[in-house]
Amino acid sequence: MRTEAELEAQIGQWRGYVQRHRAISAADVEEMEGHLREQVSDLTGVGLASDEAFLVAVKRMGSVDSISREFAREHSDRLWKQLVLLPTEPEGGGDRPKRELIVVLALVVIAALTLKVGLAALDGGVVARNVSLFVLPFLAGYFAWKRQVSPRVAAALLVPFALAAVVLNVFPFDPDGSTEVIAAIHAPIALWFVVGLAYVGGQWRSDRRRMDFIRFTGEWIVYLTLLAFGGFVLTGLTVSAFDTLDIDIEWVVEDWVVPFGVAGAVIVAAWLVEAKQNVVENIAPVLTRVFTPLTIVMLLALLVAFATNRSVIDIDRNLLILMDLILVVVLGLLLYAISARDPLASPDTFDRLQLVLILSALAVDVVMLAAMLSRIAEFGFTANKTVALGMNLVLLVNLAWSARLGFGFVRGRRGFADVERWQTRYVPVYGAWAAAVIVVLPPIFDFA
């Protein structure tokens, strides 16, 4: 039809203009054109003529630079933020950064006071179970405010925190039992996924937004570690300086510095990640390239050590715990390597190195599962053994399928999108497992 031909001609002119922009590759133009066509289709669907729909769609997309900015936000797994992202006026005007800083500081103060009251009013075990409830709801509130979530999403965010508060404080945990410790460890893990729901603005079904949250988590851990280390050093130097003057300020540290430092570090680290994400490349994926080969060497050395051990039953319990932590580190390395990779690039040496890492971790996980099952057969189930066994099974599924997809990718039989999609869609399994550990496990073992 004539109108369709005119529309194609207009899109062709737009495409030619965009292609002349040096920073935009052919593959990126293809995707932006798809977005433009979706806009045109939506507009014609509500009654606009094709030429009118095209003009409105182009107007919505804006200039090439604004298209680049939007494209960087929609495809944060590439280096667009570093290469093409140009300064823009903050949304809502120039006062928004100041307003955001005020909101962050207010949330820090409220979270710190809540933590301080909790530390003063509750016993040690109760505090350990509830510490994540003193801080993480305010971090989720920050993202809910920043993403301007709907009232429905905001209400949905409150439900998990309320349920966690009920479970963690109503269950009759034995103060000397294992289930209380297990619940205290898994509560922040489960609630972190609620923070993730706020971070993605309720778009949890989006693979891209899940990967954004994975990337944020790695960056947040790096910033939190730096803030914690810096705060520890600064506090130690300050206390030492006052000690030389015979002035005791340890009560100030315990009553004020600790709650404000903990709450402040959690929320400020998130704010720093948000503030710098449009300026420099992520840190966590860069560190991945350094630690991946070192981790492979460590895993292979452990496999050799396991092979020389006469019986898997004799493997030390503490070693099994450490190996669980190492496998979690391997998972982190895998996720952040994926987040930093150009999805359109061909398989390279580092991709093959990642496959070796996965296979090594998979072999270690199998050995650990054999050791755990042998110990359970010999001594029976306990809460700790059940949690460890379940976690290793969850990791086993992820590593096994990751190895299959990774092997297909380096052989050229699968696209990188399959590898990435598997990881982003498997992430909720960890949150579901942590929630099940808190809710289901304690009653099974009589809260002991």
Name the descriptors.
448 residues; mainly alpha; 17 helices; Permease prefix domain 1-containing protein; Perm_prefix_1; membrane; transmembrane
Question: Can you walk through the features of this model?
Answer:
There is one protein chain. The protein is mostly helical. The protein folds into three domains: 82 residues, no CATH class; 181 residues, no CATH class; 131 residues, no CATH class. The N and C termini lie far apart (74 Å).
H and E string:
HHHHHHHHHHHHHHHHH
User: Which oligomeric form is depicted?
Assistant: single chain
The portion of residues assigned to helices is: over 70%
Portion in beta strands: under 5%
Number of helical segments with 4 or more residues: 17
Helix and strand composition category: mainly alpha
Give the overall shape, derived from the CA principal axes: globular
Distance between the termini: 74 Å
Domains counted in the coordinates: how many? 3
Rounded radius of gyration (Å): 25 Å
Topology of this structure?
Elements: H1 2-19, H2 26-45, H3 50-61, H4 64-74, H5 80-83, H6 96-121, H7 124-147, H8 151-170, H9 178-199, H10 207-244, H11 250-276, H12 284-308, H13 317-340, H14 349-379, H15 383-410, H16 416-439, H17 441-444
Helix pairs in contact: 1-2, 2-3, 6-7, 6-11, 7-8, 7-9, 7-11, 8-9, 9-16, 10-11, 10-13, 10-16, 12-13, 12-14, 13-14, 13-15, 14-15, 15-16
Summarize the structure.
The protein is mostly helical and 448 residues long.
